[in-house]
Amino acid sequence: TTLVSKILGKQNVPASTRYALINFIAYGTPESRWLGDGERAGIVNSFQSTFGKLPTTATDWEDVLKIGAGRWPSQKATVKEASAEDLFATIYKRKPNRKNPNDDAAVTIMTYGLRPTKRNTKSEAAALKTFNNVFKKPPSSAQDWDVLRTITYSGTKR
After folding, report:
1. SS3 letters for 135-150?
2. How far is it, in rounded angstroms, from Cα 31 to Cα 146?
3. What local confidence, expressed as pLDDT, does residue 94 receive?
């Protein structure tokens, strides 16, 4: 429940929402069980950061699972996508070409916090150096970690 408390902060939510979060984070689903409880909490945090709300509907929870599986969610956050396009330009020194699959993946990973299905710690270490060079600080927020995953897994080049 500590992870749930971090997500909820001082929010007053219905018991059903709290119990859904506890159940998902502690036990997962068949699709998310391979992730640890901290990563499942991170997926919920990415959803909340992107959409400005906790997952409550079936569609919300489906999108949480899609984020955890590295798949595009069905809901759109156009303002967040525009912000991710600005971050893309900061990182890659050019505007994204959304018709290019790698550029589109980069913006989508940054916007929605998509998780890789297979991690590559060597690539993550290299991406961390790039992140530190671009932003002059280590990643600390959900958005920072989404950017780090983008650098690592999108396939986009400068």
Report:
1. HCCCCCCHHHHHHHHH
2. 21
3. 96
Burial of 38 (0-12, 13-18, 19+ CB in 10 A): exposed
106 closest CA partner among 151, 47, 49, 42? 151
Token reading at 131: 């992140």
Reading phi first (left if > 0) and then psi (alpha if -120 to 50, else beta), residue 25 is in alpha
* CA distance to 68, 109, 125, 129, 144, per residue, from 122 (Å): 21, 19, 5, 11, 18
Q: What is the pLDDT of residues 104-142, one digit of tens each?
A: 999 999 999 999 988 899 999 999 999 999 999 999 988
Residue 60 gets which letter from DSSP?
H
